[in-house]
């Protein structure tokens, strides 16, 4: 986290861990993101971004694939615990955006905040369209 020396590690299976400034890893996870599709492939927890005013509002955002099958992309906001800065409140979850994934692979996304303070999510996926004579690959952007 900018300013406090901690490094937050995102694991595909849904865990967010903290590495402290002295290089030690906290024994408990910062948060286990609920409903993450951790079946492998190219799914799971994909991104994490801290609100520009995190020091005062304790809000952060995650991008992940939830559910079974191809899953859905989910972008949600959470808040760090008011009593422990090394844990997040799962009950603070607020869903921002959900959309279906056409396939279980080639899932990816990035979360960042722009200079205006707004959250930017870039989602890239490949979509294969079957036609009688050939398979056509096209990119789809949101």
Could you tell me how far the N terminus lies from the C terminus, measured between alpha carbons in angstroms?
A: 28 Å
Strand line-up of the largest beta sheet: 4-5-6-7
Q: How would you state the average pLDDT, rounded?
A: 80
The percent range for helix content is: under 10%
User: What is the β-strand count?
Assistant: 10
Spell the H/E element sequence: EEEEHEEEEEE
* Global Rg: 17 Å
How would you characterize the largest beta sheet?
4 strands, antiparallel
Beta-strand percentage? over 45%
Broad structural category: mainly beta
Discrete helix count = 1
Uncertain residue ranges: 128-142
Q: Any idea what the shape is?
A: globular
Structural features, described:
This protein has 142 residues and is mainly beta. Helix content is 3%, strand content 51%. The relative contact order is 0.16. It has a four-stranded antiparallel beta sheet, with no helix packed on it. Strands 1-2-3 form a three-stranded antiparallel beta sheet, with no helix packed on it. A three-stranded antiparallel beta sheet has the order 8-9-10, with no helix packed on it. β5 (59-66) and β6 form a beta hairpin. The longest helix is centred in the middle third of the chain and has 4 residues, at 54-57.
Features:
142 residues, mainly beta, 4-stranded antiparallel sheet, 1 helix, 3% helix, 51% strand, globular, disordered C terminus
Topology:
Blueprint: E1 7-10, E2 15-19, E3 31-32, E4 45-50, H1 54-57, E5 59-66, E6 72-80, E7 88-100, E8 108-113, E9 119-130, E10 135-141
Antiparallel strand pairs: 1-2, 2-3, 4-5, 5-6, 6-7, 8-9, 9-10
